[in-house]
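Re: duplicated header lines in exported structure tokens

Our pipeline writes sequence and tokens for each protein into one text file. With two proteins the header for the second block appears twice in some exports. Here is an export where it did not happen, for reference. First protein block:
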Amino acid sequence: MDNTMLIQVTNQKAIGLLHELEELHLIRVLKKNIAPIKTKLSDKYKGVFSKEDAKSFDEHTQTMRKEWNNT
């Protein structure tokens, strides 16, 4: 059986439990302290909007900013 799961430990007590499970040969810890991959927003949303939609969104954003600054 080869089921691999990625988990995030939210409580330090869980690390002890994981080590105990590993000692009982119920699980195997493959990697420790893996940093999440940070993706730039520009890369994440590249190509999501058409040029027309992006231009419309930009114009709308500029209008909202002007309205916000006028209040």
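Second protein block, exported in the same file:
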Amino acid sequence: MTEASLAGKLSHPHIAAIYDAATDTAGGYLVMEYVDGGTLEQFTDPETLAPIKTVMEIAFKCCKALDYAHQHGVIHRDIKPANILLTGESDIKISDFGAALKMTSQSTQLTGIGSPAYMSPEQLREETLTHQTDMFSLAVVIYQLLTGHQPFTGATSAGMVYQIMNVDAEPPSSHRPEIPKRIDEIVLTALRKDPSQRYATWDDFAQAFSGVFDNLEIKDDVVTDAEKCSTLRSLNFFRRFSDVDLWQVLRIVKWVTYTPGQAIISEGETGTSFFIVTSGEVNVSKREKLLTALITGECFGEMSYIGSRHLPRTASVTAASDVTAIEVGADALSQATESCAHSFESAFLDLLVTRLEEANIRLSSLLLDKGVTNA
């Protein structure tokens, strides 16, 4: 019935959707989103560990999902590998909110809920819980994904409980030397016995993981969703997008790169995409005359979406340096959720207002200069 009460209330890309639930004299049932990749339990053995970068991305996404739940007044209380489902290589869906606590509820916090190996000290002490109990549990999961070992063990349940309450965990790198010290610090911070000494917010926890990517000793050419999400969040164009809308953006855009001098769009061609610069600089020209330069965070080609019909490009855009941009196709954007589409429309409105203000300033300056010259 707890799951049923949450049906339709937690709509997030990294929370398994609950479509229906009911109980009767014969039992009960849940209808939930199908997730095809199994649980994270498959990566908790020392012989089957996932790459460190993949674990960091999973951790980042879990933080964002649990932050969303917390904003809706929900504490999960049973975070463990078996309740985190995998789809694709590193996309996750948190499931099983049957033990969830509604912070706005007037009911008593039930004891004995959760899985002992992943419980926080305050949960074991049956104290009032906050979102930081889920942080502790998630840190235990991350520790296990990184090392194949749990941070707290014991020959008996009582021994394990004693360790959780009284013994500090060893750094993850003590089990897997290639783990960077910064990751040790992040995980051990979230495993502190006193909730007030853990991360204050889920966003703080998520950003700690995000900041690790550039410093990982294991480098590759794959840019993770967590890195992309952080990049989008840093751009002014997306400042009003919710986290849910940003994850939707990741699903509908293409990340493209260009070398200096490479044409991105050409004057006169008919295009159906617009672009947002995420790094580098581009030149905008008309009839081979330079009009302006656009830098990180700025948008071009948006009339293909704003216009009511396909219009020829009115200018050419060329990479002035190494450029990374996101390409948003009008057809893809039409498939976005209503909330995400509304966020794009608001961003375009801000963009148009800004450009009109800049045009007015330039026109006034030109008129003033002309008046002074004539005089």
